[in-house]
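Ticket #4471: structure output looks truncated?

Reporter: J.K.
Steps to reproduce: submitted the chain below (979 residues) through the standard prediction queue, then opened the result file.
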Amino acid sequence: MKTKRLLSAVLFISLSIGGAFAQTAYVWKTATSGGYTYKYVTGDPTHSRFYVLKNGLTVILSPTTKEPRIQSFIAVKAGSKTDPANHTGLAHYLEHMMFKGTTKYGSLDWAKEKPLLDQIDELYEQYNSTIDTAKRRMIYEKIDKTSGEAAKFAIANEYDKMMASMGGQGTNAFTSFEQTVYTDDIPASAVDKYLTLQAERFRAPVLRLFHTELEAVYEEKNRGLDNDPRKVQEAMFEAMFPNNNYGKQTTIGTIEHLKNPSLKEIRNYYYNYYVPNNMGIIMSGDFNADVMVKKIDQKFSYMKTKPVPLYTFAPEKPITAPVQRDVYGPNPENLTIAFRFPGAATHDAQLLNLVGDMLTNGKAGLFDLDLTKKQKLLSASAFSYTLKDYSVLLLQGNPIKGQSLDDVKALMLEEIEKLKKGEFADDLISSIVNNAKKSKIQGNEGYYSRASNLMDDFTTGIDWRTDVANVADMSKITKAQVIAFANKYLGDKNFVIVYKHQGEDKNILKVVKPHITAVEVNRDAQSPFLKMVGEIPSNRIAPVWLDYNKDIQKAKVGPVDLLAVQNKDNSLFRLYYRYNMGTWNNKLFSLAAQYLQYLGTDKMTADDVSKAFYKLASSYSLGASGEITTVTFNGLQENFSKTVELYENLIANCKADEKALAGLKVRLKKARENAKLNKGAIMSGLVSYAQYGANNPYNYALSDDELNAVTADELVAILHDLANYKHTILYYGPLTATVAATKLAGIHQMPVANFKPYPAGKTFTKISQTQNKVLFANFDMVQAEIDWILNTNAYDNTQTPTVELFNGYFGGGMSSIVFQTIRESKALAYSTYAVYQTPAKKDDRYSVQAYVGTQADKFNEAIKGMNELLTDMPESEKVLDAAKDNIRKSLETDRITQDAILFNYLANQRRGVDYDIRKATFDSIEKMNLADVKKFHTDVLKNKPYTYCVVASEKRVSDDDLKKYGELTKLSLKEIFGY
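Returned output as attached by the reporter:
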């Protein structure tokens, strides 16, 4: 489960598909089919149907037959906004507990379990109302003891096991301000099993295994205390909304409330808000809508309509002077400015999305051209965040070296003034609409994005008709209207400003670890309900394997191979030039790729180039990894030739710009400094060090002296020379390979004679661990993060089925042994896994990587817990069966389509495989048994020397603790990053 990120750049814009659609009348219509009446919007490309069942349950269905799978969201229109003021975080608690089962599943003996759970209820009420520390400790000891007794009758993760066995993927949930959403991706053949399970899940959830799950929420809270962006978000909302619960309480809750939970209040919340007239089932995928709505009605008709408590709040007063907040933490400094707008369903909120795109769209927005392109800031972005009661326009900026946050403020507000004065290109709005045309088609390609958009509109209260018609309406907006809108809302004082400073946060109060006795998980037990669900008939879907000779078309563009898959669904194309060389061949390749975006030609400035791509609703990017460099294009097929010509002219004729390089160096140095303040980047460096040694791919970077010495002419020479190296062209679009090759032949530049040989490449070889070692990096954080690394055998494609099964069984998901033990039984981590990683090429080696993110005061317990699993693997036929079922049913319904076919082919080619290797796994999985998995664990993981990669605060984890696990090496940031 995860809390939904608050400030994700989600734009609720639906997009039209061409000029003809601008004339479509987008109106609600009513129809009846299969005995059910539904509403739909004319001109809706998703053909979505909106039903309201007799009990008030909303059902939204968007069929698409591209893959035999279904994305399902079960959404409740309630979240942290409706938490009781004295029990914040409650909606999020409940989200976690909805995975624990009911009276029918998750229990060995409900009659014996219930009295113990009732006792736990009462003990928590006592705990909640007790202030005396000694008495609280005594009560908690009783909670821990009684919970251990109750756990003997509980079956942990039975929900996850059922979802895994039916081939479910992406099983999760998230909570935000006004939504709690449960998400699953299932095979189309598993609908009857799935709906049976969901109907029971929401019937009467049992709050079992509560104190271990509560510890997982503690972990999540502590992770948030180490998350500077989350702290910025919370500070911004608190200042922006003093009257609304958007600002008065957080989704995860206060520490005080986390320490004093009430199961009775959680249960009351469920009874108040988890009612059919406040819920929606949203599905997109391979199904017949008439059949699906009937199935849902039959399963959920037991739910009874009930009045939902109305959320009320005092309207926010106008902001008449900037409201400032200051946030401190170890991450790099940055600035956030926020303006308040009306709620999501209003016309102004829809117009706000357009304004966000006018400021930032990645190519031609005011921030893009004036701040990022001109390198005045390290980065800058603007986007809208729409909620039911209010919306927000967010401006975020990161300074370059030597720049103050007030400088960032001034630069961003200067762009707002330009917007208010109309100092933007006259065709910017039409360019945004043209790009929306492409985005609409992209959004409708996958069943997940369809369902996600429908779900968000449902919980936020956005009218789907408005969403569908939005781009058509947006195309009618004039420059004068945008100017008036900006002047109405974007004043010079009516904003909240959050200064994120780099430094120690002295206000952190972590959630202290309570003592938790490990509980039973009864992983081999099965409830009668699980067996019943397993026996529900489901048709086996025939798997579809790739046949590269049939699925990939081939042609030649001069001497260059072109591989193609034809797009028969829409008018989009994606094109790639792929070179088998990268930064291991030349460290400057990555820098040259970044430099290109700041260059023009003798006839076009860099801004002209960006605007030209944006007008075409096309984009290009040049990126270099260690061994591969790729030029990527995407756009509308109608603009294919113009897009490629634009790039070819740029790459052949780009001119050196010393000022742009100087600016890029300043920004790059700041970015490198910032990376050293990022715990994720530090951990990635430790892992690479553990796998390859002191000289590794991660620290194979330009030194400061090398970076200073780079010249503009050097980089431009690399760019001009790129076309002279051998490469492969990949095309996905409406054309056949032959036609695409013909079109490219007259555009794509290649050498007159032979291709140049690739520069000699640096080779990195994984090392062999011979003894336990500990690599430590100090970081100011509440948590401690540990990775276990072990390099093992050389790649062997015959091992693929065993690797897949081992990962599914041991540590690759929520029903796995690792997750059940570390999180469910011992409550040692919010996030944990252990996987056997397959290398990307045939001459490389596998690696074991295990992970635990835990509270620093549980450091030793967490390591002990994972080490026990790496040494002795618990055996469970039931967990193995679930893993096998999940792999088999996932493969049956897995469809590799579009340009993914091309990349699957190339990935297998690098491993020396010329066929779809998934078939080998499918054919082998039923024949494999627990002894195979056990032998694999014994041969590969057991009693092996591991390198422990630890990122933690040296104030919270001692050297003595670290030395318990191996020879200790404390790495400097220069050793980790190479600069």
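Triage note (M.O.): checked the attachment and the full token line is present. Confidence is low (pLDDT under 50) at residues 1-22.
Status: closed, working as intended.
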